[in-house]
Amino acid sequence: MLWVALAFICVAYSKDSGFFLRGGRRESLFLGVLVFWVLVVSMANALYHQDVEIAFPALFYIFNFLVFVGFIICANMFGDNFKKYLVWFLCLTGGVLLLFLILGFIPGAARQVAGFNNPNQLGYFSLLLGACGVLLVDRGKSILPLIWMIFVSLLGVLASSSLSSLGAFGLVVLGAALKFPGVFISKKIVTVVFSVLLILFSLTHFGTTDQLSQQWETRLNVVERKLDNVGESRGYTRIIENPEYLFLGAGERGRWRFGSHHSHEMHSSLGTILFSYGFIGLALFLFFLLACFRRAHFYSISIFMAPMAYSLTHQGLRTTFFWVLLALIVIYGRKKS
After folding, report:
1. Residue 138 in contact with residue 176, Cβ under 8 Å?
2. Statement: the pTM of the whole predicted model exceeds 0.85
3. Model confidence over 214-224: pLDDT tens digits?
4. Exposed, middle or buried by CB within 10 Å (0-12, 13-18, 19+), for 12?
């Protein structure tokens, strides 16, 4: 609730009553309409089926909407200082993540969690950390904070042994290459590569890289099995088997309605939006994304496609960091008009 309180404080003490209108108005409006539709669908299904749990996911969307608005308000109020503090905060976050990776490393485990509930959360968080880093670090300034965030991001993805995160991480690297093309031919990259190799050598000395290699060997052995039943294991077949929910939506819980073989949640962000909130919800979400990427740089699009690629096989909409990334794209990832 910290960002909720911060947003209201900014509104209350702003000398310029129209500050919010300077940026993010259209995007916030589309997201607000989407959240309202989520609330309506969730409440309607909860009342109809007499299951209050169906209404709970709407709280995540309301909270993340307030975070999205809070970031835009703060950026409008505090300008470049807000961006500078965010860079340092993300660098600190990367340090904490690395500390958890080291202290919480479990030798012999198939996948690492580093304090998260499961390995997929670690992989997704690490992916978003690198994506936000690329957006926040400016051209012409020191890229050492970016290199640090990218390195910790990659290490987190590797430790999680998440196939989806590793594939999506390439889009983050592509976004960095599009934004900083000169870095790859500069003398600075020699120092960076040498530092990374030194760190990797240190990890090898402690046997960490051997453990990661064994993790990935185990994970790659199950790729074929995962691809064979991806539609059923990720919940996509639920859409085909229950087409009556496609117009208005079924809500995200109360999965007892769809049979015992659909007891797990759908592992897809777009699939969840379509099935849970119908064609109307999907259209509102897409309109919101179009508003966010109005005049966006190519590197911003590449960066955003990373979590979207991950979300083809996972539900990533509840993660607040995802909505923070979208807010940063609206604030810093677009061409100046």
Report:
1. no
2. no
3. 655 555 555 55
4. exposed
